[in-house]
Structure formats: C-alpha cells, structure tokens
Amino acid sequence: MTDLMILSDDHVIAIEGKYTEPPYETVDTWKNSPNKELVLKGWLELISSAIPKSSLNIDNVAASPYQMIHRCASACFPAAVRRVLVYQCFDLDAKKTLYYRSELENLYRLLNEPDNLNFFLINVPLVKSPVYVELQNRWDSPEPKKMHVDVIRGLKAKELLAFGEPAVFSIE
Hints:
By secondary structure, this protein is of the alpha/beta class. It has one domain (4-125, 165-171). It has helices spanning 27-30, 34-50, 66-76, 94-110, 130-140, 148-156; strands at residues 4-7, 11-18, 82-90, 117-124, 126-128, 161-163, 167-171. It has a five-stranded mixed beta sheet with strand order 1-2-3-4-7, with helices on one face. Strands 5-6 form a two-stranded antiparallel ribbon. The radius of gyration is 18 Å and the shape is globular.
C-alpha cells in the first residue's frame, strides 16, 4: 500500500507520507519468512521490468528499508513513460532529513540512476498551535485517550496547525 498513487496515461506518481513513524526495518531483518522473500523477489521483478538497467538484488538491498523497496515497486507496477517516487515528510529534523535523503540516494544509485524514475523528498514544516500541543501531550500521557471529539473539533475549526514552506530535495 502506498499512501497516494496518481495515475495518468503516461505518468505514475507514488507518494508516501511520513510524520511520526520510526524508520522501517531493513530488508534483511524484514524478510524473515519464505513468503516475505517471495514478496521481495516480486517487488524486485516489478522494478527490473520497469527499469531494465537496475541492478537491484536481494543482497544489495539487504540494508535498505524494506518499505522503500515496496514503494519503489508500487511506482514501477503500472505501465508508464515517467515515474516519480515522493517521500512527503512532515516536520523532519536534520537527522531524519539526512536519513531519508541518504536512503533514497542509495536506492537511486542501486537503480543505476534511472531516466524514467525520479525521486523527491519533501519536508513540510508544521507550526503547532497550543491546542495541538495540548492534544499531543494528552496522547503521550497515561490518561485515557478519548480525544476524538477534541481532534474533530480542532480539525473543523482549523485550529490545530499550519504548514510551513516545504523544502523539496530532488534525489540525483
């Protein structure tokens, strides 16, 4: 599953959104069953069929986040002239920005810098309102959650947060 797939006659844009999730397991850690290894082989075949000069194999993606391989395969599944894989992340600090950029750059290199697949990392800063901060503190506390009414009210009133100017990184 990819968060958003935009399809046209000639283009595929796969967008993965990230906010609070920690990094995903590496391929080597994730492929802990025969079924997962078959799934991984299927992803690599999809990628190779869309990007013939790719040199991906199970060994050289072992240290990559399994989810990034999955997202790349999603972008490679439908027929298309141009493909784009976007990681749209919210409120990344410098460490997380470096993590996503380096992992995407590594995958781009393993694909032998394809002409028909572009990678982008977009970092969208968040400006959190006091209401948002209070809800976040409640989420992290041991008190019962039951926050849905306050979250819905905050969303409807548009009082939770604002988006800052995105930073766009083209992976090359």
